[in-house]
Design brief:
Layout: E1 2-4, H1 9-19, E2 26-30, E3 36-40, E4 50-54, H2 60-75, E5 80-85, H3 104-113, E6 118-122, E7 137-140, E8 158-161, H4 167-177, E9 181-184, E10 186-191, E11 194-198, E12 209-215, H5 220-231, E13 237-243, H6 250-257, E14 261-265, E15 273-275, H7 278-284
Parallel strand pairs: 1-4, 4-5, 5-6, 6-7, 8-9, 8-12, 12-13, 13-14, 14-15
Antiparallel strand pairs: 2-3, 10-11
Helix pairs in contact: 1-7, 5-6
The structure holds ribose-5-phosphate (R5P).
Length: about 280
């Protein structure tokens, strides 16, 4: 049975359709003091069965809700609990960057491990974040799904990564699209909301460019990249990302930078979630 977290209802439905597994009904309540409570309907059907809890954790509340869902299916007697993290919150805090700081990704991974037999993480910022779990955990690559919503017939397309780390994602999307070149910019992060982009000598003039990254969070990286490309007279600039977090005014920043379209998957459910990651997850289930 697929058991959805409140932030992953569309993806869970798509995954149920893709796998033919039943989709559990769930309820999510919040008490006046702020505490949440979840319930899985038809939980008796889980006794002796495998439960697949699918819950993105973009917020602290979603983290707690996931722990509750894991506990609920165990309480119902599930014989195996698989946890799918479509988007793993805190994954980018993968080191203690300054004295006194935690390795937050490890802290949440340990907590999640206590309620599950296995974990699938969709495009964690660094794949080795999976090593922080105390149970078998593996990354799932949903990047190839991003080729699907792109307009057909892009003109001399360039699939560009805003930094070298994202180049494999750009290559995956290019391969799935079936046409185009790849390149990458160099990025230096100055703070949480400021980045400096050092352009490569990629020729963008008159071409359609798709900038590909794992996450668009504040939109700073992408809006900088779009501005550079517009300055180089790129024809149209599209943004494709696995996780359209789009915090705060990110979407507006992209618009004002001159983006022609923003495409994400449903690992984070937004208006921009143009394609589902379900087939990539189903393959690994
Ligand atoms: C970091 O290297 C990631 O791949 C993304 O580039 C980053 O998280 C995007 O963040 P923002 O949208 O805040 O620039």
């Amino acid at each position: 049975m697929i058991v959805p977290g409140s932030a992953s209802q569309s993806l869970s439905a798509a995954l149920a359709a893709e796998t033919g597994l039943p989709l559990a009904g769930t309820s999510y309540e919040r008490f006046p003091d702020g505490e949440g409570l979840v319930a899985v309907e038809g939980a008796s059907g889980l006794a002796g069965e495998r439960a697949v809890v699918v819950a993105a954790t973009p917020t602290d509340a979603a983290h707690v809700e996931l722990l509750q869902l894991q506990d609920a299916v165990a309480e119902a007697g599930a014989s195996e609990v698989v946890t799918v993290l479509p988007y793993m919150g805190y994954a980018r805090q993968d080191a203690s960057f300054e004295a006194g700081q935690p390795i937050s990704a490890r802290a949440v991974a340990r907590a999640i491990s206590t309620g599950t037999d296995r974990v699938l993480v969709v495009n964690p910022h660094k794949p080795w974040v999976c090593d922080f779990f105390d149970v078998p955990a593996e990354p799932v690559d949903a990047a190839s799904r991003l080729a699907e919503p792109l307009p057909a017939g892009l003109d001399d397309p360039l699939f560009l990564a805003p930094d070298e780390n994202a180049l494999p994602l750009a290559e995956t999307v290019r391969d799935a699209y079936g046409d185009g070149e790849t390149d990458f910019f160099e990025k230096h992060r100055l703070s949480g909301t400021e980045v400096e982009i050092a352009p490569s000598d990629a020729d963008a003039a008159g071409r359609d460019v798709v900038v590909v990254d794992d996450i668009v969070a504040t939109g700073t990286t992408m809006s900088e990249a779009i501005s550079v490309l517009r300055g180089r007279e790129a024809s149209r600039v599209f943004v494709a990302c696995v996780h359209p977090v789009l915090a705060g005014s990110a979407r507006t920043k992209l618009e004002n930078a001159g983006v022609a379209g923003v495409y994400g998957t449903d690992t984070v459910e937004r208006v921009e979630s143009a394609v589902t990651a379900a087939p990539a997850i189903a393959e690994r289930l």
